[in-house]
TrEMBL record:
It comes from Triangularia verruculosa. Pfam families: DUF2427 (PF10348), Ytp1 (PF10355). Residues 476-496 are annotated as: Disordered. CDD domains: Cyt_b561_FRRS1_like (cd08760). The chain crosses the membrane at residues 63-86, 93-112, 132-151, 172-192, 204-225, 298-315, 327-347, 363-381, 396-421. Residues 50-150 form the DUF2427 domain. Keywords: Membrane, Transmembrane, Transmembrane helix. This is Uncharacterized protein. Residues 178-421 form the Protein YTP1-like C-terminal domain.
Amino acid sequence: MALDTAAGSIGSSSIFSFVPRISPSIARITLAAAFLPMALSHGNHGGDRIPEGSTISDDPIDAILWIHIFLQTFTFGILFPFGMVLGIIKSRWHVPVQVGSTALALLGYALGHLHKGRQFNPKNVHAKAATPLFFLLVAQIVLGVYLKLHLERGIHGRIRRFIRILHSINGKAFPLLSWAQMLFGGITMLGFCQGDHLGQCAAHFIMGSAFIAYGVLLTIVLLVGQLWLHRTGRSQEFFDSAVIAAWGCVNTFTEHRWGTEWVRNDWQHTTMGIIWWSAGLAGVWLSKGRDGEPKRNFIPGFVLFITGWAMSAHPQELMISAMTHQMFGYTLMAVGVTRILEISFVLKDKASVSEDGAQTHSFQFVPVFLLYAAGFLFMGATEEQMEFVAGSGMDAVAYILIMYSLAFLVFLVVMMFINVYDRAANPHSKIALNGNDRGGDETRVHDADEFELDGLMTDDEDDDNAASRKLLKSEGGEQNWFASPSAARRNDERLA
């Protein structure tokens, strides 16, 4: 309240009038002192011990580098996404969590330059991506502080909406950027994805990450997104088929280097792209009924099944690689089969188990989890990784079990984040004996509104919300929790 009062007394004055004047020379000295340890330690990455033709030295990974790996994985993989969820639900813990996460991230950034063990090529992709990620983090902090000051008069009132949009987009994109940076870190640590291996390595990591992202999206829609899906007037298979068709078009024209001779893998990958866009277009057509109502269909599940069958028969040189690819294919085939069974027999072509979209069937989690597992198996099946595992003495069964374990952990973390959001979006939920009853219409209205994820830090309300409340008072209509987004927002405000 004190901060809001101060903001109101500021008027159109600049925010920087509260900041003491700092000499440019003092500012440069302060920044230089802050980054001096990193600059001095950067000499350890000179690469003087890296053998010719390699990107890493033969030195072992020391304790400092291990601390850097685990600290940054915890910070960027757990804390920052958790803080993002807290921002979406407008929790008062959003700022403390993000401030603490930033402090740990800076510590991990410094440790990444202070280690004395293995050397890496200074131009590696992990180091190149660290700098822009760091500046995006700083920009997110600056935007968040500006929004927290609630400056709304003068020019601040005109630019505040754009600042909120930038803060929201950057915050929601940060987990994706963090995921890519963690993958870059693993690739750099082992010296993989170099030279002729770059193409197939990128294909494995991109497609594997895509399967995991698909699983995350299905988890969100399954647990908290049914009302949003209903309001779109589309079935889940419409969106799935549209993405499948678009991805198939890309694969059709990128898997073969045009102008060169066709080889066996080119034929397989290109024809896989053709069946994807062909089936995707059919799935889009089947996603609408005769009168335009949304309809479920089998197309996405069948595409996953046929893709898994093709990948299970993909020729490999190493036995462990063949077994890993085969298990990936079987897992993807299981995704397709269980998805078709879910739609046709569990849901019987309905959007969800219950009309309010609040209940789930235990079988619905099977295809969702298998997507996580398929993604990790495919990411872990590159040529260099297979050679590394074969040389370590680990058998294929143990390696596959490790991939499934990682899938379970990520699946667990995603469900925990969704649960945090769900509990905050449904504060008056009632848990019945079967654990499915989450409350009445009041809860569902709030869920439908909050699923739109409108910004990370929006403590103030805009003019549109105020106008909506005024209109609601004049209309006094009956609430409808399957109404349009604006109507759901008006009902939510009336209930509040």
